[in-house]
Design goal:
Shape: globular
Strand content: 25-35%
Helix content: 25-40%
Structural class: alpha+beta
Length: about 750
């Protein structure tokens, strides 16, 4: 006689065992446990056969993704130009639920474009025998075209229970009763293991080093245009990180001199894919050639000069590559706090003291962010709840908290630490709702300039929408500390900003085009009005004003010296500073820009609803590209004028003080040193710069300084919103009592 024994839930706990037991107390049939447990799935991705061709040459560049529960857990390397690729890659995965199948997807890698789908398949984990290696052949299919033959993928898999978390046990009827009361301790152990599992999947977000790349030049590239020349540019890709160089028109030997950084997420290194392209306006760009860099073959803490031959094309690329080990970002629980430890705090303060100015100029400061909790978040699920998690970003550094399930008032209590390379960076904190079936839903975001942070103050920040133009539902509580060396920060202000490689691409927007046009028009009108004012002095419309202007003109021209130019700018900064401290602040919130940003957001919502109707846009791709270029030029011109204005308006006091120091220095230099000597030194430096440093990157200190000053749009985006009084805990208690 067989007994079917199930342990029922205790205190709403899940079923732990489901096993058939005979009267002799021996196991009759082992049934895979379709209940929460920890399993290790060892997969060897062998090879593919007869895969689909997706490239023009009749081949593909296939790679494979594994997903479990809607989350990507493994991605293979790319095998170039093969329909029968051999990977022989191993992956070790942790599985919580056997009922969730392994989703296998194959893609054709297209650099700079969207990768082409080559087929998918499911592997039912409940059909695997425990502790037994199994060779599996999966047939790839396209759900849209089920009759198409897309080839097969060969795997070897082994499914094993994790020790102490899932084991075959023989239960007698008396043992069942004892097991009934051990459910609670088992469940708490399972909860802890689940947290470890989430840490495993979150681990790749912590980077372990920096790959610094300088693209120097190209040599004898392939001519793609009818004039025997090309307009070359280069694309780089390391995992999900991408970089695109500037376009060098009409040359086969371009000189780029561009520097950028990638983050290294794996100890063993990685492969950087490099492709060279010829720019063709109005049609698809021509492919020049490709090459790769195997980072595992390069030694760390050393600069390597590489001359790489382009495959499938002609010519060479010259690069400088440096691998630097780093531990600049970290995540821990709230109980582990670097600044609360007196010894660690003293070491951090000593590291960024004024006495250590010339020690590692790139290490400007230290940032600690405590993500405490959020309240009143938006309900993203049909149950009226959300599964929120938080993403903290500083430039290209990105860390995540764990997910708090089914909660609109989550508590994370996490501490994030970053090394600051630019004190003018903006800390971005975004809250998402986790969704297993698709990408995470946006719940809210805040952007906080580092220079606006008040150390050690726990503060409630009102969450904003994606465009940072208006409030959304909820507040997030943060406590932030910034420690930096002011001299290093000032020196770093005069070099190019770190380029963010994860940015949304610009798209054509009528409202954005209009906004940028109005912004530029306002900047130009300032100059036009000044010209009208000066011209009115010549016309003697107001005799008193014209007479004063005439006397001032004679006095200035007769006594003019070059040092008076920075001195006048210095007086303007000083005048505005005294207006601010006296309470006569002439800085006004630009309500026009705010209104236009809100209008733009409404239009974006309409564009999202019509995103499926893309046929017309595809037909006028060239026109759209021109419009986007004009739109971006208008934005750059308007931002340039606004940054100059905001420098003198003390929008960022740190930068205004830095401008005062620089102007004082220029005034003294121009007063005591004849102009001819200054021009001579400048010319000698410019003419000998390439001789002294052949791979130096050109930059303009003044433009680099202005790039740190926010435009009017950024001022509005970074502006904090006033918290809703209803979010106050005391207020909520009173409401509950009422």
């Amino acid at each position: 006689m067989l007994y079917s024994c199930k342990l029922k839930s205790v205190c709403n706990l899940p079923v732990i065992y489901n096993k058939k037991i005979n009267t002799a107390g021996t196991s009759n049939t082992d049934v895979p446990l379709a209940v929460p447990g920890m399993y290790q799935l060892d997969i060897t991705l062998r090879r593919g056969q007869s895969l689909a061709a997706r490239d023009r040459g009749g081949t593909s560049d296939p790679y494979v993704k594994f997903k479990i529960g809607g989350k990507e857990v493994f991605r293979s390397k790319i095998i170039h130009k093969s329909l029968n690729p051999v990977w022989e890659e191993k992956a070790c995965l942790l599985v919580e639920h056997l009922k969730e199948p392994l989703y296998i997807k194959v893609f054709d890698y297209d650099f700079g474009l969207q990768d082409d789908f080559m087929g998918s398949a499911f592997l039912d984990l409940t059909q695997l025998e425990l502790n037994r290696p199994t060779d599996v052949t999966v047939t790839l299919k396209d759900p849209r075209y089920p009759d198409h033959d897309l080839g097969i993928i060969l795997l070897s898999v082994v499914l094993t229970p994790k020790e102490g978390e899932h084991r075959d046990v023989e239960l007698s009827e008396n043992e069942v009763v004892g097991s009934y009361f051990s459910v609670k301790s088992f469940f708490w152990r399972f909860q802890t293991q689940s947290l470890r599992l989430s840490d495993v999947h979150r681990k790749p977000h912590l980077w372990r080093g920096i790959v610094s790349i300088t693209l120097i030049e190209g040599r004898d590239l392939k001519a793609m245009d009818s004039n025997g020349l090309s307009d070359p540019y280069v694309k780089f890709r390391l995992g999900h990180q991408k970089y695109k160089s500037k376009i060098m028109p009409k040359t086969l030997n371009p000189q780029w001199r561009e520097q950028f950084d990638f983050h290294l997420y794996e100890e063993r290194g990685g492969i950087i894919d490099i492709t060279a392209w010829d720019r063709d306006a109005g049609k698809r760009d021509d492919f020049i050639g490709r090459c790769q860099i195997d980072l595992s073959a390069l030694s760390r803490e050393q600069t390597h000069k590489l001359v790489l031959q382009l495959e499938e094309g002609e010519g060479h690329l010259v690069l400088l590559v440096t691998l630097t080990a780093s531990a600049t970002v970290s995540i821990s629980d709230l109980s582990i706090n670097s600044l609360e430890d007196p010894k660690e705090r003293e070491e951090i303060l000593k590291r960024y003291s004024p006495l250590r100015i010339f020690h590692n100029l790139k290490d400007v400061g230290f940032l600690q962010v405590k993500v405490i909790r959020a309240e009143g978040l938006m309900a993203a699920d049909v149950t009226g709840k959300s599964d929120p998690f938080c993403v903290v970003e500083l430039n290209n550094d990105r860390l995540l908290t764990h997910t708090v399930y089914k909660n609109l008032n989550p508590e994370w209590n996490k501490v994030f630490t970053f090394n600051i390379k630019d004190i003018h960076s903006v800390l971005e904190v975004t809250v998402y709702d986790e969704d297993r079936d698709r990408s995470a839903d946006f719940l809210g975001k805040v952007a906080i300039p580092l220079l606006s942070i008040q150390n050690g103050e726990q503060k409630a920040y009102v969450l904003k929408n994606k465009q940072l133009t208006g409030p959304t539902k909820g507040v997030i509580y943060l406590e932030i500390d910034v420690i930096f060396n002011a001299v290093k920060a000032s020196l770093r202000t005069l070099i190019p900003k770190e380029q963010k490689y994860i940015e949304e691409e610009n798209r054509l927007s009528k409202q954005l085009l209009l906004r940028n046009f109005i912004r530029m028009k306002r900047c130009v009108m300032v100059l036009v009005n000044a010209a009208y004012y000066i011209n009115s002095c010549f016309d003697w419309d107001s005799p008193a004003r014209s007479l004063a202007a005439f006397v001032l003109f004679l006095f200035v021209v007769w006594n003019f010296e070059l040092y008076m130019i920075p001195m006048v700018l210095l007086l303007l900064l000083t005048w505005n500073y005294f207006l601010i401290i006296s309470g006569k602040d002439n800085r006004q919130r630009d309500t026009v820009v705010e209104d236009m940003l809100e209008d733009e957001e409404e239009e974006d919502d309409k564009d999202d609803k019509d995103s499926e109707k893309k046929g017309f846009i595809n037909k006028i791709y060239a026109i759209q590209e021109v419009c986007i270029s004009v739109q971006n030029i208008l934005d750059e011109v308007a931002s340039f004028g606004e940054r100059i204005k905001n420098t003198f308006n003390w929008t960022i006091p740190f930068l205004s003080w830095l401008a005062i120091v620089a102007l004082c220095a220029f005034t003294v230099i121009l007063y005591f040193i004849p102009l001819r000597y200054i021009v001579l030194v400048w010319g000698i430096n410019k003419f000998t710069k390439k001789l002294r440093s052949p791979y130096a990157i050109d930059n303009n200190e003044l433009l680099d300084f202005l790039s740190r000053v926010p435009s009017d749009v950024q001022v509005v985006q970074y502006q904090e919103l006033k918290p809703d009084p209803s979010h106050s805990p005391c207020k909520r208690k009173k409401n509950n009592l009422g």
